[in-house]
Amino acid sequence: MKHGLILIAIFIAATALTSGEYSSAFMGKPTTTTHNPPTTTHNPNTTTHNPNTTTHQPPTTTHNPNTTTHNPNTTTHNPNTTTHNPNTTTQHPPITTHNPNTTTHNPNTTTHSPNATTHNPNSTTHQPPTTTALPAPTPPTNMTKGSYNVTDAKGNICILANLEIGIRVNNSEVNGTFIVQPSKTNPSGDCSDKTANITLRFDEGHFILKFKNDETKKKVYVELVEYDLKYAFKRGALRNYKGKNESLELFSAAPGHSYSCKAETVYMGDGVSLDLTNYRLQAFNIKNHEFGTPDLCKADKPDYRVPIAVGIILIILIVIVVIAYLISRKRRSNGYQSL
Description:
The protein is α+β, with helices and mostly antiparallel strands.
């Protein structure tokens, strides 16, 4: 009986041992629950805590006093089996590639060229009088005398001219006179032994006189007169007038003398006349830069015909009176007889 109890106890102990191993096999990994809390691959706490796998087999002492196989530390302490991959957590927090300024904030990429709209305020070329002003006659003015001269190659004056010039047009379309203004006129010319010419240039055209020294006739005269005028005698009626008169003997004077006249007109054809007033001309043989003795134009020469006619009439009247007196006296003497 006693041995039977012992055998039963040994059997129970053996079964207890075996059941303890199996139970420890099932119970020993209590919290193997791998806590992967934030699936966001933070493997911070992947620590597989196998903390106290200590399979406590307490008093399995089968009183085979020392047969008690104490596997005290069979407790497989895998204390640090906790694979701390603390930084295995590939914490790429800004894997959301925050290229904060990758959104290329070119704030002014909208090229604010404030004045790119090329404000040329006055580029709008305001030409208010684009309506080209129609040519019109110059304001009325009086004839003005101009003094002009021409020098030869030696620097000696070969032409002297003091005159007022008017170019008069009188035809079916125009009736007016263009007056040459000395202040806007430039003289030029040249001289030789036999000929000399003077050209007067102004904004509207020119006027030319050509002198000839005719030794055969012992005269100096103008053999050519020419004009060229571009002028509007009426508003909007700008026309060109030109003409030439040659083979003449105008303004004739003795060598060394000047030609002088108060007023004279030279007809140029096509209704155009040159009005020369208060003028004096001389070419060749000019001494001390002064005019020689004046040879007057016909209009300025004194006319003695009237005084002569008046004188003749007076003489005839006197003769008639004397004859009448003598006749009457003779009759009286015939009426008395001597005693």
